[in-house]
């Protein structure tokens, strides 16, 4: 799945399949300017920062179990968001500090360091990388991912895929080759 935020005409948090199909709104009320987004891949939770409401909130992948992690002036100007173990990590763009927030009680907020011009944060740790199983976009014997001549996108599950073409090409009737 692909998760993303939008604060155009209607602010929302959405999800869709990797090929863009099955687009679903998971949050569309009491939300103004959702920006940074992070996933808890193990427990299947979506966290986001709303810079207008000065809040960090969370829901499950279906948009249920919503609650506010932290709200108020102390988290104003947040950008970037990452989840690791019991904490959320984010950047305060006002003073360029990295913040660590306890994602369960929101009261334990610590400034860890300062970085000039930081706008995004990621946690890279072996335990956060899910094991890759056999999937529909694996390279075939001819060197084509999923049998697609240009781009292979996973679809509704790891066994399904959709082929797409680079700009200027059209997908052939076989659903795999680009012309």
Model description:
Helices cover 0% and strands 41% of the residues. The protein has 179 residues and is mainly beta. The protein folds into two domains: 2-128, Neuraminidase, CATH 2.120.10; 132-178, Laminin, CATH 2.10.25. The protein has a four-stranded antiparallel sheet, with no helix packed on it. Strands 8-9-10-11 form a four-stranded antiparallel sheet, with no helix packed on it. This is Low-density lipoprotein receptor-related protein 1B. One of its GO terms (biological process) is canonical Wnt signaling pathway. Keywords: Lipoprotein, Receptor.
Question: Layout of helices and strands, plus pairs?
Answer:
Blueprint: E1 2-7, E2 11-16, E3 24-27, E4 34-40, E5 45-50, E6 55-60, E7 67-71, E8 78-84, E9 87-92, E10 97-102, E11 109-114, E12 151-154, E13 161-164
Antiparallel strand pairs: 1-2, 2-3, 4-5, 5-6, 6-7, 8-9, 9-10, 10-11, 12-13
LDL-receptor class B repeats: 1-43, 44-87
GO molecular function: Wnt receptor activity; Wnt-protein binding
Organism: Apaloderma vittatum
């Amino acid at each position: 799945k692909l998760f993303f935020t939008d604060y155009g005409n209607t602010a929302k948090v959405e999800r869709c399949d990797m090929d863009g199909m099955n687009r679903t709104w998971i949050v569309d009320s009491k939300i103004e300017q959702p920006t940074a987004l992070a996933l808890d891949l193990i427990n299947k939770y979506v966290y986001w920062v709303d810079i207008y409401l000065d809040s960090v909130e969370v829901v499950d992948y279906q948009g249920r179990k919503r609650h506010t992690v932290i709200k108020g002036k102390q988290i104003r100007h947040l950008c970037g968001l990452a989840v690791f173990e019991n904490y959320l990590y984010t950047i305060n763009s006002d003073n360029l500090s990295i913040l660590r927030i306890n994602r369960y009680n929101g009261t334990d907020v610590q400034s860890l360091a300062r970085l000039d011009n930081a706008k995004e944060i990621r946690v890279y740790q072996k335990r956060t990388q899910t094991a890759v199983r056999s999937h529909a976009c694996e390279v075939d014997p001819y060197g084509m991912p999923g049998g697609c001549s240009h781009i292979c996108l996973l679809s509704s599950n790891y066994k399904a895929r959709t082929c797409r073409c680079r700009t200027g090409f059209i997908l052939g009737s076989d659903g795999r080759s680009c012309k």
